Amino acid sequence: MTKTMWAAALAASTLLSLGATMATAADLTAAPEAAPVATEAVSVSSPWQVRVRGLGVITQDSGSVTGVPGSDLSFSDSVVPELDISYYFNDNIAAELILGTTYANVYGEGSIAGLDRIGRTWVLPPTLTLQYHFTDLGAFKPYVGAGINYTLFYNQEGASANSLDVKNKFGAALQVGADYMFDDHWGVNFDVKKLFLEPSFDVNVGGTDLSGRANLNPWLIGTGITYRF
């Protein structure tokens, strides 16, 4: 074999070795496949929420009988269970409907104090409020609200009076409260509402028909359990 042939064979062998080395290096340095990116599940709360509260109903002791100078009225306070249902339009805006019933004894005061307990009426005051919830305080979630109330009076009866008829009445409502949430569903609640409620009434005392106004204007102070669906 001539020198030229030996040189050609050596060059070919060298090129084959270099190609194999480069192929091996390419395999070793190839980038690994990207790991799949985990998608985090987002928990979306239901717009519905319920609360069960114990509610103190504290009335304003004021009123009068038309045409009787110096007449005044007072009303009994009570503690009752209450249910409210809320719907959240978004994180900040919600509507709340409260449902509960109680009774009030009506007493004569001032110049009609001798009548003592005039009568009693049961009260159903469904109240709808529109609320703004503050959401930047972590688990503590205060809110304010305003709305409308329609109070129905039923199962009315006289005591010292022969009869008592308190008229159903619309009124305004203001509200402030807060939830403290333990997790996405459960929490505790404290709530205060003021109802502006001054219904008129008819009463018969000793065969005489009279009328007047009862300035109830109650505070509704409640605390209880919150559950968000």
TrEMBL record:
Q: Which GO terms describe its cellular component?
A: outer membrane
SUPFAM superfamilies registered for this protein in UniProt: OMPA-like
Q: Name one GO biological process term.
A: transmembrane transport
* InterPro entries per record: OMP/PagP_B-barrel, OMPW
- Which domain of life does the protein's organism represent? Bacteria
Q: Which Pfam families match?
A: OmpW (PF03922)
The signal sequence is 1-25
Provide the coiled-coil residue spans.
none
Q: What does the UniProt keyword field contain?
A: Signal
Family from the record: Belongs to the OmpW/AlkL family.
What is the name of this protein? Answer: Outer membrane protein
Taxonomic placement: Bacteria, Pseudomonadati, Pseudomonadota, Alphaproteobacteria, Hyphomicrobiales
